[in-house]
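Support request from a user on the community tier.

User writes: "When I paste my structure tokens into the form, the page sometimes reloads and wipes my input. The last time it worked, I copied everything first. Here is what I submitted, just in case something in the input itself triggers the reload:"
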């Protein structure tokens, strides 16, 4: 038995009532920021599954407002369960003397958490029509948790809408990259900040893929690690953000309609939902994730995690940017024609790249399993992006450059003009009502996503007009 298993065995036999043995422990995949394990225990002579959620590497993490810590996450789940929110029972919160890091042990619940399966699997066809309304009811229960009686007010950060916007902009500015659509969206958000809002508990990551379902409905709400006190409509808007629809058309998680979500919320809360208020947070959701994706690329450049997944996620920023286009400046676009670079070499560069992609996809992937197979798929998809860029990228950037040269009356380089537009959007010298800028952003962002991910639902929506 390893040191880890020995310490864990001591914890479960001493603190789980009726437990006489740790039979096995299995590390599960999934969960980008925390470790999850399935424990098999002997409890009152029966084999019982339980789950353990633990900090990466068993570290002790100092809580901050943005991430209050796993002990607070356990407290949040207990408070939610008491309010009627579906949650597992928490059996034990790890202490320093256990020498296992931050974490907690909870009831094991069976169910499905993969968003794509929830949206598409025939297994859940009977419950999908009612899921949006159920999400609304659950969110209302979360938002009415008494922060004072539960002791959560002193353990969570408070982030009003404007502070949340400022926080994300600070992260974006530190990346030091000119992304005009992100700056345009920030200006739109600034002009549409909610003026009337409550401050309640906010889950802050309530979405398809972060709850567990079975054939009867939602079994548990997962991942409370970024909860805070803020505008409750943040949760409704995030639930509707296109990134979490998994390619489906329905706006609520890919499985439901706005009206059902709102009616479910109103049924429990007794408060009317303003759709424009929710739209602000839906736009914010795509803005937030656009910056988050760029952060992944920055991690690849400067951080310890230089897996092939990081830069691939960085390219997904254009998905979120096209979602912002569809929400706040929709309109017609003209796609750049193919043709690509003139290359007389034999073999051509695109043939070299294509051969590597096909080798990974057709020969390497079938020999791999688990995360390595997933990373091989990511690698082959990244080569697809490179091939599409070879075909249309130069022309796309030439047209972008020409539009900016004409707009500013300047012959400066493309990067310089991008920065000029970004700074003008930030200081207000270019207004978000400027039709030429809206047209420019539509053409630029939609043609970029055509390179990065032409099967993305937001791209397909953008070119339908």
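"...and here is what came back when it finally went through:"
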């Amino acid at each position: 038995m390893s040191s880890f298993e020995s310490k864990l065995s001591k914890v479960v036999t001493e603190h789980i009532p009726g437990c006489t043995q740790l039979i096995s422990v299995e590390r599960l995949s999934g969960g980008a920021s925390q470790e999850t394990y399935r424990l098999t225990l002997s409890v009152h002579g029966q084999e019982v599954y339980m789950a353990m959620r633990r900090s990466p590497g068993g570290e002790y993490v100092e809580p901050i407002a943005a991430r209050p810590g796993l002990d607070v996450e356990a407290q949040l789940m207990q408070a939610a369960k008491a309010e009627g929110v579906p949650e597992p029972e928490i059996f034990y919160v790890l202490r320093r003397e256990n020498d296992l890091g931050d974490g907690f042990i909870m009831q094991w619940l069976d169910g499905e958490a993969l968003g794509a399966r929830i949206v598409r699997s025939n297994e859940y066809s009977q419950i999908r029509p009612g899921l949006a309304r159920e999400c609304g009811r659950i969110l209302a229960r979360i938002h009415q948790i008494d922060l004072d009686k539960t002791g959560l007010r002193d353990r969570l950060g408070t982030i009003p809408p404007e502070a949340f916007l400022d926080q994300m902009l600070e992260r974006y500015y530190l990346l030091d990259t000119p992304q005009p659509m992100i700056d345009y969206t920030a200006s739109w958000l600034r002009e549409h900040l909610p003026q009337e809002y409550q401050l309640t508990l906010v889950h802050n990551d309530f979405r398809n893929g972060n709850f567990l379902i079975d054939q009867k409905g939602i079994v548990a709400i997962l991942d409370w690690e970024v909860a805070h006190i803020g505008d409750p409509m943040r949760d409704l808007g995030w639930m509707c953000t296109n990134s979490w629809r998994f390619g489906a058309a329905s706006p609520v998680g890919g499985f439901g309609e706005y009206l059902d979500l709102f009616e479910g919320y109103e049924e429990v809360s007794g408060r009317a939902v303003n759709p424009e208020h929710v739209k602000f947070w839906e736009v914010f959701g795509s803005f937030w994730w656009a910056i988050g994706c760029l952060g992944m690329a920055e991690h690849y450049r400067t951080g310890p995690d230089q897996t092939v997944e990081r830069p691939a996620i960085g390219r997904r920023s254009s998905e979120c940017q096209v979602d912002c286009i569809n929400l706040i400046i929709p309109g017609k676009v003209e796609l750049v024609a193919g043709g690509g670079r003139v290359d007389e070499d034999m073999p051509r560069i695109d043939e070299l790249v294509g051969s590597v992609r096909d080798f990974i996809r057709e020969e390497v992937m079938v020999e791999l399993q688990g995360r390595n197979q997933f990373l091989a798929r990511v690698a082959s998809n990244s080569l697809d992006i490179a091939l599409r860029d070879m075909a249309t990228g130069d022309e796309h950037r030439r047209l972008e450059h020409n539009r900016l040269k004409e707009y500013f009356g300047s012959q400066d380089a493309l990067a310089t003009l991008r920065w000029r537009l970004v700074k003008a959007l930030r200081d207000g010298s270019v207004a978000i009502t400027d039709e030429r800028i809206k047209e420019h952003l539509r053409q630029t962002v939609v043609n970029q996503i055509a390179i990065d991910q032409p099967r993305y639902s937001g791209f397909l929506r953008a070119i339908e007009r």
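Agent notes: The reload is a front-end session timeout and is unrelated to the input. Strands lie at 19-27, 35-43, 46-54, 90-93, 103-107, 158-159, 200-202, 211-214, 217-221, 228-230. The mean pLDDT is 93. Escalated to web team.
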